[in-house]
Amino acid sequence: MLEETLKWRSTYKPEEIRWHEVAHEGETGKVSRANFHDRQGRTVLIMRPGMQNTTSAENHIRHMVYLLENGIMNLSEGQEQMSWLIDFTGFSLNTNIPVRTARDIVYILQSHYPERLAIAFLYNPPRIFQAFYKAVKYFLDPKTAQKVKFVYPKNKDSVELMKSFFDVENLPSEFGGKASLKYDHEEFSRLMAQDDVKTAKFWEIDEKPYHIGNGLSVTEVAPEPTPIAQAAS
């Protein structure tokens, strides 16, 4: 697996993907990094399949890989895994990604980011999602499948499970918490551009300035960005 991953990274070059290349995929906030950690200090990725806004499988996967790399870069010290929160508000067959795209994402996650996923909460998924998941589950490693949890707001066990992983004060109301989930694409883009500087430094990559809006280029962003994810109390 290590050999295959090294080959993949040498050709796909995930560490060289920059936000301005995939920002159009994130305009609706369909996948973003949360501004909080779970109780274990893990990075949290929020996914909203009902916000799907593009049709290119290649670009969708590239956007996802970028956020996986970004999530890893922002892990708390001593932490190696991340948590996923998946909100099904607005989900329909029209917004759902093809099974083939989901399969490719699963392959990349399992083959090149093994054990990076701690747990994935599928919050209040509609019945129409069941058939899609059955098709995707076929490609899931049994150990990965065990990390996928279906949770429902009216189920007591589901509520308690969410509370065991997250502080309800930080958790968005879409997931049964008390916080609000507001995605500001311009602000998120600014933060990702800051993180791109940090990523380039980590990998020792020479960067050329690029425009991120409001007259700023990525090299003009503060060179030591502060992590946007704050640990839950």
UniProtKB/TrEMBL annotation:
Signal peptide: none
Gene designation per UniProt: LOC110409030
UniProt organism field: Herrania umbratica
Example of a GO MF term: phosphatidylinositol transfer activity
Pfam family, one: CRAL_TRIO
CRAL-TRIO domain boundaries: 38-183
Protein origin, superkingdom: Eukaryota
Entry-linked PROSITE patterns: CRAL_TRIO
InterPro entries linked: CRAL-TRIO_dom, CRAL-TRIO_dom_sf, PI_Transfer_CRAL-TRIO
Name of the molecule in the record: Phosphatidylinositol transfer protein PDR16 isoform X2
